Batch of 3 targets.
Target 1
Amino acid sequence: MTDTIVRATAEIALGRLDPSPANVRRTGAGQGVEALAASIAAHGLLQSLVVRPKGGGRYEVVAGGRRLAALRLLAKAKRLPKGAAVPCHVLDGDAGEDAAEVSLAENVVRQDMHPADQFEAFAALHRGGEGLGVEEIAARFGVSAHTVRQRLRLAAVSPAIVAAYREGALTLDHVTAFAVTDDREAQERVFAGLAEWQRTPATIRRLLTDALLPTTDRRVALVGLDAYEAAGGRVQRDLFSEDGGGWIADPALLEELVGRRMEAEAEAVRAEGWRWVAVGAEASDALWRCRRIWPARAPLTEAEEARRDALSARYDELAEGHSGTDDDLPEAVAAELDAIEAELDALETREAAWRPEDLALAGALVTLAGDGRLAVTRGLVRPEDEPKPAAPHADGRDDEDGEGLDSPGTGEAEAPAAEEDAGDKAPALSAALVAELRAHRTLGLQAELAGRPDLALRVLLHALAGDAFYGRYGDAVASFPAHPPAFAGMAGLADSPARRRVEEAEAEQRGRLPADRRGLWAWLAGQDEASLLRLLAVLVARVADAGAGDWTAPGDTVAAGVASAAGLDMRRWWSATPASYLARVPKAAILAAVREGAGEDAARRLAGMKKEPMAEAAAAALDGRGWLPAALRVPGAVAANDDAAPPALAAE
């Protein structure tokens, strides 16, 4: 190796210095020159250049090419005179390999500062805001203010985590992940709670920010980040993310601002005159319960109709007057036709509006949409606000035999069992018996529907369309989804012929279905229409309810119409026995049933009996006669005292 001796240090004018081809740094030689120039401007040239004479009073810089470039940049910016004296070490000798060796030695043997030392040094300069400011530090070291803030954020990370970084247990990416929060306790808790293999930057960020509200939240979009900060809110930013994201540090303030915005919108909606206006997520949870109505276009007034007719007549007149010409329409005629069309369109396409009765019935809901916009849903009718249907009979009784129309299961006590005069007027039946009879009627209707898929389909569509487009209190036979009608406390229903028929139909269909629900869709997809309709019939039948209405009263109910279409004849599903009816009604009602079903002579023979033997004798007299109480009669069915035997139980 050739000895290289530094003979002297001299100050040489900047204009006499040239870069040397012997400098070994080739890649990235021009990177960071601006930052280096800023540092030299702030702190001076901390390390002298190494030069060698090249003749003519000029020198080439064999070590310190980036410093030379930075000095020239300062001179170009007029921040340094071109003739400024630059401290240099002058080499003795002119061998090319000696200059290259010096350049190599300077670049190889030096060791860059550890990043932890760098950001702690930045923090020492800043001293928590009492030292140099962020912008001043940035100017002195030729970096951006954002870079300085990043270094200061890293310096604020828990010393235990920085120590692990210095020891090589963590990387800089790990440290930047911990820096998403300035809560050192949280940093240390996550650091201690994660196994080494779990300490990925993504996991660290997720655990430290899961409980925080991101600035991308829809509530922030509604209020606006600027408005939140103007109100005193602080944003905890991730200085190391590409999108500059962050988290809301004062969620309570944000909620307050959101509440103000939503309440202001709600006040504007209330001014429209709605029955009610609800606000927020909790209110929207009940949205599924509401029926939706829509605004309608008001009909044309008489004056508007007259104007429309006049315009149409004029249009036809102009069109007919020029229909025979091959030339283009005269400009004036074409213009008039266009004007007429525009006015007619305006009359026909007027904006829909809410009617006063809509506003009095329905309400509106103010919620926050997913994109941060306020969404107003108008025309919502709550179930409790639906117009209630008028009762079919004000006195709550059937017209024909005096049976009460009380709701099933009221548990009203039976009439006293005292011996009544057979000639007395038949009293009302007990509420319990009425409820049971109507339950039998429902089971009979279900049994018929189970074998009528075509009718069941119509029942289904009637219920779905009625609920969706009309009102929740509309007359319907079934509701979806629903459980079968409850018949709690009604003895004898489980073993009734109709109940057995429904259970058989259900068991048959269930046996065809896959055992696992996950296979149901694939099974349905593979069935033909007839199979699907059979299944539909059973599913509709099991939730059908014949209702409490009087089928014998004028104005048939929907249930009565369905029963008639199904060919329901309750003689197939019910018969009068002491347990089902006769022993549970007054003697006058027993005699009335026998008189109607078996004739006056049969009733006269029973008139002097006690109630229990009377009920047994009445059952024998009515056996095979097909007598039905009014609650079980279907409009258009065979007369109650018809001597024809009831039809046999269907064996579909």
Note: Confidence is low (pLDDT under 50) at residues 393-420, 639-652.
Target 2
Amino acid sequence: MATFLYKLGRLAFKRRHFVVILWVALLAAVGVGAASAPPAGSSNFSIPGTEAQRAFDLLEERFPGTSADGATARVVFKAPDGEKVTAGDNKATVEKAVKDLSGGSEVASVSDPFTGGGVSQDGSIAYSSVSYKVSSMELEDATKDALEGTAEKAQDAGLTVEIGGDALTAMPHTGTAEIIGIAIAAVVLVITLGSLIAAGLPLLTALIGVGIGISAITALAKPLGMDSTTSTLAMMIGLAVGIDYALFIVSRYRAELAEGRERQEAVGRAVGTAGSAVVFAGLTVVIALVGLAVVNIPVLTKMGFAAAGTVVIAVLIALTMIPALLGYAGRKVKPAGAKRGRGAKKGEPEPAPSTAEPKANLGTRWARFVVRRPVAVLLIGIVGLGAAAIPVGSMEMGLPDEGSQSTDTTQRRAYDLLSEGFGPGFNGPLMVVTDAKSADDPEAVATDVADRIKGLDGVVTVTPPVPNKAGDTYTITVIPESKPSSTQTEDLVHSIRDTGADVKADTDAGVLVTGATAMNIDFSQKMNDALIPYLALVVGLAFLLLIAVFRSILVPLKAALGFLLSVLAALGAVVAVFQWGWLSGLIGVEQTGPIMSMMPIFMVGVVFGLAMDYEVFLVTRMREAYVHGERPGQAVVTGFKHSARVVSAAAVIMMAVFAGFIGSSEAMIKMIGFGLAVAVLFDAFVVRMAIVPAVLALLGDRAWWLPKWLDRALPNVDVEGEGLNAAAQAHAGAGPDEEKELVRA
């Protein structure tokens, strides 16, 4: 591995014009594809294997033409205090609004509150449901303007009018915090690499990589059914790893220059050593993201594959474009430790590195302290992370609805008005589908189902069964007493399903529960059921990969256990802020509530991949020192001497990038950005910088033990670059056919 990457780095350095043109041409090609691609519609959210999905599929089969893909709006009217919407001018205003809502080519249907039971018992609140022929992402601006204009006219007439549903859904924005995050990353790069030119290379290549990845996702969004969240998450992860991977190679390049090597040789060695770590770190991230497919939820699978694609692009750019750009930068990128100032002129030799004994850096001093006090550092780290993880014990999971949005939004105010007028459960109706095709009297079966549901606790209203044209399938709408995200509503769904099992036994008719609320409940359950298998798959595959990288059993085991500590602590912080409301005002969380169902499994996947990044970058330097003859304790110090500064910088950069997405208007993006930023903080600075060296110091030589039979069976990936000396000697006498030799290799 190291030898091949060494040759690749030298080739990219020498043929830099070709490499840069290739990447720029690829960026232009996918950019044109993205610009000419049709706009993406709303993603088809499905949960295969769940009862709610089976009911949804049955509805599409038995009730053709009533597709649930169309946008919806609930226009809610409230009369002034002491008045009713059913009286005088107020009623006329509502009727005029309903008539106006019916206009437009994209409108499918509009309900009349006065004839369709859309008026509250006290007469103060009414609503009209509007259905559209196209999805919310495909609605024309004119249709949305007409909807808002109708509401404004009714408000001018004296009513309070709010609009719920997804018809006014807007593209999420991240705000200026994302730009601030990139600016912080730039400052850290300048401090770490010592010059604007060197700092600009990781930023430039990361932006090119993200540009290629996001453009490709945009071009494929329509045919593959991907939504805006997919591209946002891909951007978040691709930008973070893109900067970090490039940073590691540039830092190693400067270290090689400091040892007196000429620039092409330094590039080759940097790509051969740090590039090997980049490849395996990227592989762990890709495994974690692609592994999301085992959950068998299409939207999550698409998110994972899209983000994994941007990671692959980041790795390829770091291995090829960074060496090419270093060739252009020439002497403007100085050796590590070199003072700023005028570099050597063209044709002059590189300034010789100082022979004076350098002062021990902060990483060296910290490592020496940990090696002397490993037990104390280990206990403090574990206790601290354990305390941060305590809130996980009270974590409640669900999916966000309009009740979790900011009170500044019309959707949230409409939600509150409907709760006030019709009860909290009105915002989360349950759809019960009775499949009586095999029953002797389908109508009687449907009526019996409705009667049984009326007798259950927590039910406010049960509508009469509505048949399809064939008369073999009926739908029943059930309004719960409690709000959609409550445990009482979840209990009611289970009670209805138990009743359906009894009906099935008595009449052979199927009873299924669906609707947004039931889909959310099934989604959360599926997430819980998939967490352990997913964790076993991802950690197991990465564990095998790290055994080959580190030639050790205990080092990968320690890495996995450390990851569990950091991800639990990060989830604890998410619960404390987004569910308990601690310090929520600082990051703009206006409404606390359940943690998104996909958050734990998504955090497990992404954080595991990122955690293994730092493990690979930090511990490979320790292993490199150990295999070259240093004692275990000294190898830990040497690893920190060379890697602690750059790993710390990489962690700060990644935290800044993730924190930038906290400013998003999308609740899911905000939560994921915060969770990943905190997870990197815990994993990089507590687990990798404290717990890892403490454990390695306690284990000593045993840390690098590997059974002889396994050592013989494993491939030699040579991350430490032991085979580079032979490759360097071969290249010293290589002629103009060097590239052909690489191809044959």
Note: The two ends are 11 Å apart (CA to CA).
Target 3
Amino acid sequence: MDLVPALREPLKKVLGPATAKVMAEHLGLDTVGDLLHHYPRRYEERGQLTHLADLPMDEHVTVVAQVADARLHSFASARAPRGKGQRLEVTITDGSGRLQLVFFGNGVHKPHKELLPGTRAMFAGKVSLFNRRLQLAHPAYELLRASADDEEGAEAVESWAGALIPLYPATAKLESWKIAKAVQTVLPSAQEALDPLPESLREGRGLVPLPEALLKIHRPHTKADIADARARLKWDEAFVLQVALARRRHAETQVPAIPRSPLPDGLLTAFDARLPFTLTEGQQRVSREIFTDLATDHPMHRLLQGEVGSGKTLVALRAMLAVVDAGGQAAMLAPTEVLAQQHHRSVTEMMGELAEGGMLGGAEHATKVVLLTGSMGTAARRRALLDLATGEAGLVIGTHALIEDKVQFHDLGLVVVDEQHRFGVEQRDALRGKGKQPPHLLVMTATPIPRTVAMTVFGDLETSVLDQLPAGRSPIASHVVPAADKPHFLARAWERVREEVENGHQAYVVCPRIGDDEDATKKSAEDDAEKRPPLAVLDVADHLAKGPLQGLRVEVLHGRMHPDDKDAVMRRFAAGETDVLVATTVIEVGVNVPNATAMVIMDADRFGVSQLHQLRGRVGRGSAAGLCLLITEMPEASPARGRLDAVAATLDGFELSRVDLEQRREGDVLGQAQSGARTSLRVLAVIEDEDIIAEAREEATAVVAADPELAALPALRTALDALLDEEREQYLEKG
């Protein structure tokens, strides 16, 4: 069924080509329906002004304020040597603060006539700093005046004074009030919006119809109107997305797969007998969940979340061995060569002679474990490819080199994806396509995900959580080191590193960039304030080796090194031949050196919360306590410092993932679910609206179970088609 024609109408027909072009290029809005779903970010009351005191630097803002003062100055310049240059300075106020507007040259005439003291207007522009004062240069403005002489008379004045002004997400090219005028033009089409919610659901939950919700969100008369509209639109977003995911889960149960159960006395039993420790309760429980899935005749789709160091790799390896037992092959996809090599080393060490299949001295149930990365030599690569094609190798660990067309498997039964967020869906899909029938899929992440995000982003996967650390793991003490306020704290940090090394341990120092001729990363507003690029590995390593850590064995590791060199550095560090490794985040995931007890993170404010948590997980992996020092020059009251204090205060990754999500826009988190397209969540807040998402999931599952094709719900089908444009449809198809 086609979408409602009125809502499918291209904006260029309704608004004209120039406005439509800006809307398409800068806001991703192409149709009348797109514009109706571009909701106001907030509302201004005529009698109440925004806080000029809180304006953010370098951002495009819209403010409502009153002109306090306007002065025209003449000045001499290269262009106007005789003092004929003109500058108009207008001061506006909102009771909380004052802001200066400046206009130059020919641009002064219109505002000089219109912006008289006492005039109220909306102003939009980019906030900049001049002579230590905030200002807007050449802002666009829209006068807010209504007089009793207007044709509509006093009534207009009254409705004007009481109305709520919608402020829309805008761009420098298209101010909020121009968007508001465009919305006014298309608003009558809202009456034709098809309601995707089943009537019983809408009435049962007391939600207003969709056309009414669209009118109320764009043109509310009261705050209650806004609340009604938002409650309704949140349900739409949650429900339609959950229906898409529920249909995906339902479709999975219809796809055939080969059940893979381990032999009673096979490779898995032999491996378990070799383990020098017992599995934690969590590992046993999650293994049972995975083995149950593997034994079914449709593909497993499971997300394994686990705290850093909770033993996910061991759980995944046991699943892989179960599949090899059942006559299949298993592949593990790692995001970097360093990590693929690390996994290969630790798997072959854990398996011992069980990894020597086909070799002299190999155990009875042994298999072969091969590594496949892009930088391998031709001979080694050819051998690995042959082992996979013949089935000689039961296990393969590799980077995205595994996905290339040349790679053929004898019988691929399980794909394990490590650090899911590093892989595109297409890469996962390409690897799954190498099975004769769809292989089972286990996705692992050490970035804990709040329950609602898991339900939204990974809603088509069943979730297992490993939340207890294996015995023998040590706690990690974390501290924020304010290098600018207290330079002696930084000196003490290097002394602590020396003490760890003197006690026979090793340390990491992490920097945001490599250095050398590399471009400094893009500056943020906070960077501008401090006017220095992020610290670089090469500079810091040089400074430490000649200064605070002189005499210690310092090496560097970063992504631009040759893979063989990277591997050699990691081997030396793992063997204890290096005291301090100065690295980029290439060590963030999976690197396991139990003797490394200290980590110093330079410019820690430039890393995200989950990334800091990941990095910190590289220490405290042995019996000695771990230490993580977060070095920053950010002032105490800044949001960046707040983030670091949160990381230092808890080792609970799930708690930190909430902090992270609350500080970022939802779209960042859901970007992967929406395959990088504009996020479909405009009013739904993943953390706040946990109840709505959970309820929507239940309702969606029931609806899809009763009517998988949604034959009885054509309007819901239409909404799904709008949500799942081709790109997103492929995303869900590929899972």
Note: DSSP finds 28 helices and 21 strands in the chain.
